[in-house]
Every structure is written in structure tokens, then in C-alpha cells.
Specification:
mainly alpha; 6 helices; 62% helix
């Protein structure tokens, strides 16, 4: 699972150094915000999932992409992703919740080219063997299929 965690970190770094506000998102398990920012752009909207994304997008839309940052030095242990099945469930849930908030703030998922850039950076920075790269790519393709399934389910059952 380490290589999957490394990929997710690369993906976050790519997103939070991007100048494309529509890809910015929030994950409240490790989100920090100044009180003045929260007072201006909060509170969180009440919804089952995605309220953190809506909040971050409000901030980015109001202050620009530089208002949200990825901090390499910050490390948070998160029990949400403790295995491959949990990862696939997580990305399926993200696909479903994206359908519920995308109309609110014009969010978009990463393009295949952006995901491949994060994948290449991950393999390169970790000096992974070609075998590990192929395994990671297979896992990510499975994740993309799960995200697509979740997104499809979200279209059929639009949560509030």
C-alpha cells in the first residue's frame, strides 16, 4: 500500500500546485484553515460528503489557487485507506459524491494526462522498478473503474 499512498501524495501535490481551480478539493481529515478564512467562506454545507470540497472551492474561487496549499511536511495518519478494497471503496464513494456537488462549484476530476503525470512522478521519485510501476498502474486502473462506477451510481441516485 505504500506505493499507492505515494501516488496519492503525488496527485495531491500536482493538484495543489496547479493553476486550475476546478481540480482543487478538500479533505477535512487534514485540512487547516485560518479563522478569518473560515469566517469569510464557511460554514461547511450540510451534506453527506463533499462539504469540504465545496468549502475549499469557495476559498479558491474567492482568493485564487495560492490560497490553498499542499504541505509536504504535514503528516496525518488516516485509517480510511488500510487496504486495496478500502481504496477501491473510497474512490467509488468519491465518484458518487462528485455527482452530488459538481453542479455547485464546477469541480472536475483529474484528466487521464494529469493522473499519468502524478503516476510518472511517483515512480520516478521513488525509484520504483518497472514491476512495481506496472502493479501500481494496474491498481490505479482498478481505482479509475471504481470511480466511474461510483459516478454512475451517483447519477442514478443524486444525494442532496
Amino acid at each position: 500500500m505504500r506505493m499507492l499512498t505515494d501516488y496519492e501524495e503525488q496527485k495531491d501535490r500536482l493538484i495543489f500546485t496547479s493553476s486550475s481551480p476546478e481540480v482543487y478539493y478538500g479533505f477535512t481529515g487534514n485540512l487547516g484553515a485560518r479563522r478569518s478564512t473560515f469566517d469569510r467562506y464557511g460554514p461547511f454545507v450540510e451534506r453527506p460528503r463533499g462539504a469540504d470540497v465545496i468549502f475549499v472551492r469557495r476559498v479558491v474561487d474567492g482568493e485564487g489557487c495560492q490560497a490553498a496549499a499542499y504541505c509536504d511536511d504535514m503528516c496525518v495518519e488516516n485509517g480510511e485507506m488500510d487496504g486495496l478494497l478500502a481504496y477501491y471503496q473510497k474512490v467509488s464513494t468519491y465518484g458518487r459524491s462528485w455527482q452530488s456537488y459538481r453542479h455547485i462549484n464546477n469541480a472536475r476530476p483529474l484528466r487521464t494526462s494529469e493522473r499519468m503525470a502524478a503516476f510518472r512522478n511517483c515512480v520516478r521519485e521513488n525509484h520504483d522498478s518497472w514491476y512495481k510501476g506496472v502493479v501500481l498502474l494496474a491498481i490505479l486502473v482498478g481505482g479509475l473503474l471504481c470511480w466511474g462506477y461510483g459516478s454512475l451510481m451517483g447519477r442514478w441516485r443524486r444525494p442532496s
